[in-house]
Amino acid sequence: MPISIKLGIAGRLFTAALACRTLAATVPTGRLFIQSTSPEVPLYVYTPIPESGLEPRNIHLSFGDNETSVVVTWSTRNDTQSQVQLMSVQPPNATEKLYNGSSTIFVDSGTKKATQYVHRVTLPDLGWGGLFKYRCGSQATGWSDWFEFRTPKRGFSPRLAMFGDMGMVNAQSLPRLMQDASAGMYDAILHVGDFAYDMQEQDGATGDQFMQMIQPIAARLPYMTCVGNHEFMYNFSHYKNRFTMPKGFGGDGESMFYSFDLGPAHIIGISTEFYFFVEYGVDQLKSQYDWLQADLERASKNRAARPWIIIMGHRPMYCSNDDGDDCTFGALFMREGFLARWYPLEPLLQKYGVDLALWAHEHTYERMWPVTRLEVRNGSWAEPYSEPRGTVHVVTGSAGCRERHDTFGSPMYYSAFRSTDYGYTRMQIFNSTHLSLEQVSDDQQGRIIDRITIVQHNHGPFP
Ligand SMILES: *[C@@H]1O[C@H](CO)[C@@H](O)[C@H](O)[C@H]1NC(C)=O
Ligand SMILES: *[C@@H]1O[C@H](CO)[C@@H](O)[C@H](O)[C@H]1NC(C)=O
Ligand SMILES: *[C@@H]1O[C@H](CO)[C@@H](O)[C@H](O)[C@H]1NC(C)=O
Ligand SMILES: *[C@@H]1O[C@H](CO)[C@@H](O)[C@H](O)[C@H]1NC(C)=O
Ligand SMILES: *[C@@H]1O[C@H](CO)[C@@H](O)[C@H](O)[C@H]1NC(C)=O
Ligand SMILES: *[C@@H]1O[C@H](CO)[C@@H](O)[C@H](O)[C@H]1NC(C)=O
Ligand SMILES: *[C@@H]1O[C@H](CO)[C@@H](O)[C@H](O)[C@H]1NC(C)=O
Ligand SMILES: [Fe+2]
């Protein structure tokens, strides 16, 4: 298995953890039918990518530098112009507006050196509470289908769906997520690392197929991402080239670390992978850490406007799975830094009172009691979490992939709820004091198996 020899210094410590995580499966090239566990959820029928070379594919949205700006990203095989036609449906406006953008050439590093052009068009300042339709492509080479999206209403309470570890094969949560999305249940999606399994396979065709599979959701809702270990090949080139995360608060400009404001929250995406794939450069640990500290400093001064600070990254700081070293040495690196020493993240979570930390990587769902520096804090041991004095950590990596489920060891003292069911997490940030999470089980026909509200009137540093 090539992964084990590609892991580098830190990675070699964790080879055992990864070796058992691969299950051979080939990606079907034809139509793919994904059946939900519930009869009322429509069958997802995936139709392969158009191969004309000019036709837009892998269309997805992300937030621009503010909540009323959207970036459309897509790809073509051939070099075409990058244009978006936008029409306002609500309020109605029959005149479409043309936006120009730009493209970058992306060459996969596999033997075929498969080439594609990734197009990005920013639709800035669309205003609150609008309903739009758009298509992308170009006047000269043709357009995609039309897709609708909304901008949030002023003063909205953001609703998000979040999950990690979703693959092309066995994407268990996808049919229900599609149904939720078409019912208008969300303002955005958070995909917390590990896509496609793996995007660079078949000279990148697996990545193209995955992005096409997710398009019905991602072309209608901002699809906000962070990087996982499965994106490690070629210095994370597939991840960096395919996504367009916001740059308004700085970051690396390649979607590896960045942040954005959403309603009453400031949301940060980081690369936990810098701590493990150190052969790509230890300097990245420092640049991410320095940026994160500055971003948290700025966000903590803006807490009156955006009281919730939420961080997402792929590998957990806390978990109780028994599938190797992820929840022992891996989590230690996440809390205490590379080799338990350099650029430790948990002191930052404590100093700036990060309210919620979202992780994945373990193919399970686990909610912790509010915990800081291995200590379960006040405001715990009951629903709701009332005025917690520690970060609430949640691991949600069970959307389904070819590696299937992980298993748990004995619960840790910080484990509050655990499930090995396939599923995903819904979050609603009601206002400055109330945020709720619920876990949807795909194994149990969409039943909510866990629900927690966090009530916090005193956002700020933890003791
Ligand atoms: C919002 O973000 C867009 C880019 O995404 C930028 O062009 C625009 O100037 C920003 N607007 C404000 C009011 O900051
Ligand atoms: C796309 O590019 C390829 C390779 O350069 C070329 O052979 C082909 O004719 C192009 N297709 C179209 C439709 O322009
Ligand atoms: C709506 O119509 C006006 C002209 O009446 C135009 O200037 C504007 O760009 C249009 N907006 C959109 C989003 O189509
Ligand atoms: C977009 O690009 C086209 C083709 O290059 C050009 O004709 C048009 O004026 C541009 N439109 C805008 C709004 O920049
Ligand atoms: C990997 O990518 C980062 C950021 O693009 C760069 O700084 C680093 O030098 C690269 N590492 C290698 C080994 O190419
Ligand atoms: C927890 O609560 C108790 C009693 O309410 C209080 O005495 C103690 O100082 C609190 N501890 C922390 C860490 O906030
Ligand atoms: C915040 O939202 C919660 C849950 O909907 C609600 O009970 C509470 O009254 C709200 N608080 C304020 C200040 O609006
Ligand atoms: Fe992972």
UniProtKB/TrEMBL annotation:
<dbReference type="Pfam" id="PF16656">
    <property type="entry name" value="Pur_ac_phosph_N"/>
</dbReference>
<dbReference type="Pfam" id="PF00149">
    <property type="entry name" value="Metallophos"/>
</dbReference>
<dbReference type="GO" id="GO:0003993">
    <property type="term" value="F:acid phosphatase activity"/>
</dbReference>
<keyword id="KW-0378">Hydrolase</keyword>
<dbReference type="InterPro" id="IPR004843">
    <property type="entry name" value="Calcineurin-like_PHP"/>
</dbReference>
<feature type="signal peptide">
    <location>
        <begin position="1"/>
        <end position="24"/>
    </location>
</feature>
<comment type="similarity">
    <text>Belongs to the metallophosphoesterase superfamily. Purple acid phosphatase family.</text>
</comment>
<feature type="domain" description="Calcineurin-like phosphoesterase">
    <location>
        <begin position="159"/>
        <end position="365"/>
    </location>
</feature>
<dbReference type="GO" id="GO:0046872">
    <property type="term" value="F:metal ion binding"/>
</dbReference>
<feature type="domain" description="Purple acid phosphatase C-terminal">
    <location>
        <begin position="390"/>
        <end position="450"/>
    </location>
</feature>
<feature type="domain" description="Purple acid phosphatase N-terminal">
    <location>
        <begin position="56"/>
        <end position="151"/>
    </location>
</feature>
<dbReference type="InterPro" id="IPR025733">
    <property type="entry name" value="PAPs_C"/>
</dbReference>
<keyword id="KW-0325">Glycoprotein</keyword>
<protein>
    <recommendedName>
        <fullName>Purple acid phosphatase</fullName>
        <ecNumber>3.1.3.2</ecNumber>
    </recommendedName>
</protein>
<dbReference type="InterPro" id="IPR015914">
    <property type="entry name" value="PAPs_N"/>
</dbReference>
<dbReference type="InterPro" id="IPR041792">
    <property type="entry name" value="MPP_PAP"/>
</dbReference>
<dbReference type="InterPro" id="IPR029052">
    <property type="entry name" value="Metallo-depent_PP-like"/>
</dbReference>
<dbReference type="InterPro" id="IPR008963">
    <property type="entry name" value="Purple_acid_Pase-like_N"/>
</dbReference>
<keyword id="KW-0732">Signal</keyword>
<dbReference type="Pfam" id="PF14008">
    <property type="entry name" value="Metallophos_C"/>
</dbReference>
